[in-house]
Design brief:
The complex is a heterodimer.
Chain A lengths: L1 E23 L9 E11 L5 E4 L5 E7 L3 E14 L12 E2 L23 H10 L5 E2 H15 L1 E2 L10 H7 L1 E2 L1 H14 L4 E8 L7 E4 L1 E9 L3 E6 L4 E2 L4 E7 L8 E6 L4 E11 L10 E5 L15 E4 L9
Parallel strand pairs in A: 2-18, 8-9
Antiparallel strand pairs in A: 1-4, 1-5, 1-16, 1-17, 2-5, 3-4, 6-7, 10-12, 10-15, 11-17, 12-13, 13-14, 16-19
Helix pairs in contact in A: 1-4, 2-4
Chain B lengths: L15 E3 L2 E2 L4 H29 L2 E3 L8 E3 L2 E8 L1 H25 L4 H4 L5 H5 L21 E8 L5 E7 L6 H14 L1 H6 L8 H11 L10 E4 L8 H11 L2 E3 L4 E4 L2 E6 L2 E5 L1 E4 L3 H4 L1 H4 L10 H6 L4 E3 L16 H9 L11 E2 L3 H9 L4 E5 L8 E3 L5 H13 L4 E5 L5 E6 L2 E10 L1 E5 L1 E4 L4 E5 L13 E8 L7
Parallel strand pairs in B: 5-24, 8-9, 8-13, 13-14
Antiparallel strand pairs in B: 1-2, 3-4, 6-7, 6-21, 10-11, 11-12, 15-18, 16-17, 16-18, 19-20, 20-23, 21-22, 23-24
Classes of the chains: A mainly beta, B alpha+beta.
Chain lengths: 320, 481
């Protein structure tokens, strides 16, 4: 499936700020089932963008804006070609508990952190999930997803980008980010390596144009084929309309943007994601490119006296 | 007087073979002290104390209600190491630092040592100082440990053992240089006659090692020393080293990142920085990368580093090399990477992350020294044989909660050396921290910081715990006797 997506982020500040330093994880990953044909990043005020792969293989773009400014605008446009694997998830023969010991590099995806954290509530749920005898791994995962759908309610506005799993377990409500953390937490309790995926869904073949939203799902490790994606929010296997931007141990590793700036200001954020399916690869592929947007800067040097603000509260929650 | 009541029936004595009979390399100084007599010694001590006060040679103690800055106690009588003995130490340290550097490189790239099960991967992946962000990142010239301070002690037989490595931000070298400067003034004739190897070129070599890692194509690279600020225990040293090298001393807020290069704010505008000798822990270096809320660091610094636009010494993530739970495997690293037998042995160590070891430690808390794996300066430590029941119970609880964070070692009787206590010399326990520089050639400064546990009978030499220091004389080859 050929998908073209435009991801627009507008940040505005109530006062002038300076020395914004930002990292973006907005470029679709290169994967066997997903090819990034082109990626363009437009940023304003004008700056210079560099990119690197982080330790999880995600493409990270980084830039800074030193002069004073009141707005930052980021438009990421990508064209990806996605497909689904030849194997059907339901055909996978992997068993639980796994037959062979895990490679040590997978142990990072069994560890709990301060978002996907252990708690008596999670412990109780995991015990409920735990099969009494060896079973097929895919059946166990289906069971987990059905359990989540049955016992948790999708509801916006209850949680934020920094909500931890313990809180979700208490009120049993949340958005895809929370559902994903929950699924990861349960899988890790059952010693199944699990990782977080940040991305978006193209609404589907019915509408060729439409507004999508940032989405999150997870991948569980099946020894026979590797990472297999599941969407606990929609209780389904992931299809070719899912575009994968970054993977990590939890949301912490993958926010679409993360920044630090100098100054004291209130930040507001507007995010828009638009996607469309293309019938064929267009001739105007850009490869990788960055360009500037016309967003103003203001006179006056950087102000070293003002404190730093770590832009954590205003990260993009993955909602849909 | 002087040595009359000196006891040498305990641990290994550095100076005396038998009561009243000094070891050959101490004979000249022993004779001289006896000739000069008590009064002259007291005068010299007074002179030394004045020097230290006037020059403001201080360190800072945390959690101390009254005035945090203290004069570093200086002990007049130098420690002397004969040339041959030093050669062994030097070879041992070069071997060790070479292996530690290869270990860091391996861990952040191919991980051969983990894949071949020489070291349990869980120990590395569970290490707090293991920085996943550094995986696959090439650091300039593949050097991870540029400046190292390795602590050596001597057991009852006088054998040198490695107690720990300090690969992150080892401090104390400024005191070595200051101690030497003071000694030269206080004992000019004795010093001149003793043929002591010079150490004054350390700042020169440090600067060379830092310039060596500058990004390619940068002529006259701009080097700075990055300090957490005046409240840091080692602020004196940070400013001292910057002054000695003739480079700027900066705090995080003096630097900024633009277009993935690091700049320093100066009165005449921004100036590009090429090499940062950072004396700030990894976690505080870059709030963007390490998510700290601290103001000490520079946002975007890690991106500039990753892209090769700035060099950092020591390298980010090298804390896996001096993690105390990984220390027991250093001899294995030497065998694995260098196919050599370690020249300097380790102290036997129990790693609480292993279940058997942990059980043993919990059962023998009253005879072991327990250390937290990532603390320095004698913080987070239990001297089992001196602790009371409540302290031991407290540690047992901590160990059970987080075994990965603790190791234990049998009490090693550090060697003793005469210290001037009041009117007389008395035996006090000492260790030795030599400083090693690495710019592809590894250089060990002859001598190092000899720390003294000034409390009678104490085995804790850390300055933060009431320790002092003395000058360390490494004799030239062929020096008397």
């Amino acid at each position: 499936m050929l998908i073209k997506a435009t991801h627009t982020t507008r940040l505005s500040y109530s006062a002038l700020i300076s020395e914004t330093v930002m990292e973006l994880r907005m470029a679709p990953r290169h994967e066997p089932m997903q090819h990034r044909l082109s990626f363009e990043l437009a940023i304003g005020p004008p700056t210079e963008v560099r990119s690197y792969f982080d330790w999880l293989g995600n493409t990270v773009h980084t830039f800074s804006i030193v002069p004073r400014h009141r707005n930052v605008e980021i438009v990421a446009t990508s064209l990806v070609d996605t497909s689904t694997p030849a194997y059907g998830v339901d055909k996978l023969e992997d068993t639980w508990p796994p037959a062979a010991p895990l490679d040590y590099t997978l142990r990072d995806f069994l560890r709990f952190d301060d978002i996907v954290c252990q708690s008596p509530l999670l412990d109780a749920l995991a015990r409920q999930m735990m099969p009494q005898r060896p079973t097929r791994l895919n059946a166990l995962v289906r069971h987990m997803m059905a359990f989540i759908t049955e016992n948790f309610t999708y509801e916006k506005g209850i949680t934020t980008a920094s909500t931890v799993l313990t809180e979700v377990l208490e009120h049993r409500r949340g958005v895809c980010q929370d559902f994903t953390h929950l699924m990861i937490g349960l899988a890790r309790m059952l010693r199944i390596p699990a990782r977080y995926v940040s991305g978006f869904i193209h609404p589907g073949r019915k509408t060729f144009r439409g507004t999508s939203e940032s989405h999150a799902w997870c991948e569980l490790h099946f020894p026979s084929v590797g990472w297999v994606p599941f969407d606990p929010t929609n209780a389904c296997v992931v299809g070719e309309n899912f575009v994968k931007l970054a993977v990590g141990r939890s949301y912490r590793d993958v926010p679409p943007h993360r920044g630090v700036y100098h100054g004291v200001a209130r930040e507001t954020m507007a995010v828009q994601l638009q996607s469309e399916e293309l019938p064929e690869v267009s001739g105007r592929l850009v490869g990788e490119r960055s360009r500037s947007l016309d967003v103003p800067i203001y006179q006056g040097g950087p102000d070293a006296i003002l404190p730093w603000t770590l832009d954590e509260q205003m990260q993009q929650q993955q909602q849909q | 007087m002087l040595f009359e009541n000196y006891q040498i029936d305990g641990p290994f004595d550095e100076m005396f073979e038998r009561p009243g009979v000094p070891r050959p390399h101490y004979a000249p100084i022993f004779d001289r002290l006896l000739q000069q007599g008590e009064k002259s010694i007291q005068q010299r001590r007074h002179m030394a104390d004045l020097c230290f006060r006037n020059q403001g040679i201080t360190f800072t103690v945390y959690k101390d209600a009254q005035g945090v800055e203290k004069i570093f106690p200086f002990d007049l009588l130098p420690r002397i190491i004969p040339a041959a003995e030093w050669q062994t130490i030097e070879r041992g340290l070069i071997q060790r630092i070479t292996a530690l550097n290869l270990f860091c490189r391996d861990i952040y790239h191919e991980q051969h040592i983990l894949r071949e099960c020489v070291i349990d991967p869980e120990l590395v992946y569970g290490a707090r100082m293991f920085q996943r962000e550094m995986l696959s990142v090439r650091v300039p010239r593949d050097i991870y440990v540029h400046v190292c301070g390795t602590d050596l002690i001597r057991d009852q037989h006088g054998r040198y053992l490695v107690l720990e490595d300090n690969c992150r931000t080892p401090s104390g070298v400024s005191y070595v240089l200051e101690n030497r400067a003071v000694m030269k003034r206080v004992f000019p004739i004795l010093f001149g006659a003793s043929r002591v190897r010079p150490i004054e070129d350390y700042p020169h070599h440090l600067l060379r090692a830092l310039q060596y890692i500058a990004p390619a194509g940068r002529e006259n690279p701009c080097v700075v020393v990055l300090t957490p600020g005046i409240f840091n225990a080692a602020y004196f040293e940070h400013s001292f080293l910057a002054r000695q090298m003739g480079v700027e001393l900066v705090e995080g807020r003096d630097l900024l990142v633009e277009k993935n290069c690091v700049y320093m704010r100066t009165t005449s505008g921004l100036r590009r920085v090429d090499v940062i000798y950072r004396r700030i822990d990894d976690d505080f270096l870059d709030p963007l990368c390490f998510r700290s809320t601290s103001l000490l660091g520079v946002p975007g610094l890690l991106n500039a580093y990753r892209l090769g636009n700035v060099a950092l010494a020591n390298a980010v993530g090298n804390g896996i090399a001096d993690d105390k739970a990984i220390y027991p495997w250093v001899p294995e690293m030497i065998r694995f990477y260098l196919q050599q037998e370690p020249i300097l042995p380790n102290v036997p160590t129990y790693v609480c992350a292993r279940q058997d070891d942990c059980q043993y430690v919990l059962e023998h808390l009253d005879s072991l020294v327990v250390k937290s794996t990532n603390e320095a300066g004698g913080y987070g430590m239990l001297m089992g044989h001196q602790a009371d029941q409540a302290q031991r119970a407290d540690f047992a609880r901590k160990i059970r909660t987080d075994p990965r964070n603790f190791i234990a070692q049998p009490v090693v009787e550090l060697s003793q050396h005469p210290s001037l206590i009041g009117e007389n010399f008395e035996g006090r326990r000492i260790d030795l921290r030599p400083y090693i520089l690495n710019d592809s050639t590894i250089r060990v400064m002859p001598g190092g910081l000899t720390r003294v546990a000034l409390q009678c009978g104490s085995l804790v030499v850390n300055s933060s715990q009431g320790g002092g220091s003395k000058d360390t004389w490494v004799l030239e080859n062929g020096a008397a006797p």
